[in-house]
Amino acid sequence: MNTELISRITGLSDTKWSGISGAVSEIIGLDIRTTPGIVKVHQKLSLISATSSESSSISPSASISPSASLSPSSSQSISPSASVSISSSASISPSASASTSPSSSVSPSASVSPSASTSISPSSSASSSPSASTSPSASASPSSSTSPSVSPSTVLPATAISGFIKIAVSASNGYSIWFDSESGKIWVKDTDDVITLAYTTVPTSGSAGCLGAYEYNGFIYWATENYLHRVPIADADNRWSNISANWKEFEVGDADFHPMAIQDLQLFIGDGNQVAVVDEDSVFEGNALDIKTPHRIKCMIPFEFDLLIGTFIADTVNRAQIIRWDTVSPSWNSSDDIDEAGINSFIRDDNNVLANCGKYGRIYFYNGTTLEKQYRIPGNYSDTAGAVIHPGSVATLDGIPVFGLSNFVGNPTSLGIYSLGAYSSSYEKSLTLDWIISENVTTGIEIGAILVIGQIIYVAWKKGTIYGIDKLDVDAKYTDAHFITKMLFQNDRSLSKTLMQVAAYYNSLPTGTGFTFSYSKNGAAFVAMASVTNEILNEVQSQETVPDIGSLQIKCKFDVSGNSAPTMEQFTVDLE
């Protein structure tokens, strides 16, 4: 009897053909770190659904007339304070529709901000009514503010969040702020997980999508293509006011990236090939550092006493730089060129910095001077298949770096929220795919902003024209948690073998839970296996033999029931 033993899963292997002992070719939704030696099922991610106020008003200078009302078709008028709350499910009526209400009016003395209200109903379609109007003397100012009031709520579909949120800020006032990268909408989540559409950015020129944001020195700053905007943190709740829209204008006006980082008590902002800065006295300088074109600044992160800058030229140019700058010298201190199509993001790993570079799953380690290849997210990469980690798709959960892998083209590997770390310094770091978005798909998606609040992870995502924000669901396990082994018994590849048994040894097996085994022999599709439970040894074992084995992979799925799931101690595969 020849036995393959996995006493401890050590994470993802680089490929299904090789890797360190205990590594597997696929692992999704499983926790291998919380209790070393025990494999558990992660909680699932659940979608945030939307709600809107049944009536709302803008004060103090703008008022909504009494004629603004709910029509028989249940459409609603939503002010900038349209709210969203967490729900495990949302019900959408096929006949519902969304429109801009024609009955809202603004008094002649009103000053209307760019985030003036719109009307949304529970629907997948929207239209604008030509009869909506303001009086001739109403004025629109991008820096004006509103103080919306919120009334009782009615559930709307999750598609009320209508754009891809790539940047989010967990603010010191207890709110988290989510910035739409496409429309300029700004959503605010309170401590009760109620989300409000607090403001919509309308810059004087350039696109309105948010390209970077940060809290600094009593303000929330966010950047659109040409402008830097800000609001006092005291006013950045679900009723934004005192907004300084178009606060400062950028010198370059990058259309895609305005990363932000704090170092030396200053806020640094990437702007094309320049670095802008805001100091403690709110003095803005548009060009504190310039780098060589055609490089553009895509991501930034503090490192020791310096600032690291990651550059990008174009998706078709395999050349990028990591630049280290002390923030005071007129030029950078050191740089390192790499042959990758951009530095996509920096990943904080305690005092270390990792960088995702290019489109082929590579993660580099920064040694203080240069980038060194460190990890590779396994996948089938090619000219037509690539994936990236967006700058805002990184966070830290319980001391472990987590990041979202997004499709660039061709879906080269499973997409979702990965983690990279170890239980302690005594263990080797491992890479695992821990969470799948609520759509329960691992292809055709992009992961946007990730925030960790306490031990709860929030994730923004995009699937085609559908957008959402997920939250870790503490009341339900992920239902498709599994791992797939590497190719087993490769030393005996030329011999015909018989699969005798697959066994999972469990630490706990709650009622309604279990393990499902399946096998793939000689590269064929996976075939399910019947199994039986041995309660004396706490073992679930397969009941059939499989002859003519050349190459072999085994899949083990963890069967859950609500918030209950089995935990595994050991896994064995026996051949003759």
Descriptive notes:
The protein has a domain of 104 residues: Sandwich (Jelly Rolls), CATH 2.60.120. Helix content is 0%, strand content 49%. The protein is built from no helices and 50 strands. Strands 5, 7, 13, 14, 15, 16, 17, 39, 40 and 41 form a ten-stranded antiparallel β-sheet that branches. Strands 1, 43, 46, 47, 48 and 50 form a six-stranded antiparallel β-sheet that branches. A hairpin with a 3-residue loop joins strand 19 and strand 20. It starts with a strand and ends with a strand.
Q: Give the strand content.
A: over 45%
- Report the major sheet: 10 strands, antiparallel
Derived from helix and strand composition plus strand pairing, the structural class reads mainly beta
What is the gyration radius calculated from CA atoms? 26 Å
User: Can you give the helix content as a percent range?
Assistant: under 10%
What is the count of β-strands? 50
Q: CATH first level of one domain: which class?
A: Mainly Beta
What's the overall average pLDDT, rounded?
83
Question: What characteristic shape results from the CA principal axes?
Answer: elongated
Q: Roughly how many Å apart are the termini?
A: 5 Å
**What is the helix tally?**
0
CATH level-3 fold name of one domain: Jelly Rolls
CATH architecture of one domain: Sandwich
| Contiguous runs where pLDDT drops below 50 for at least 5 residues | 50-159
Provide keyphrases for this structure.
576 residues; mainly beta; Jelly Rolls; six-stranded antiparallel beta sheet; 50 strands
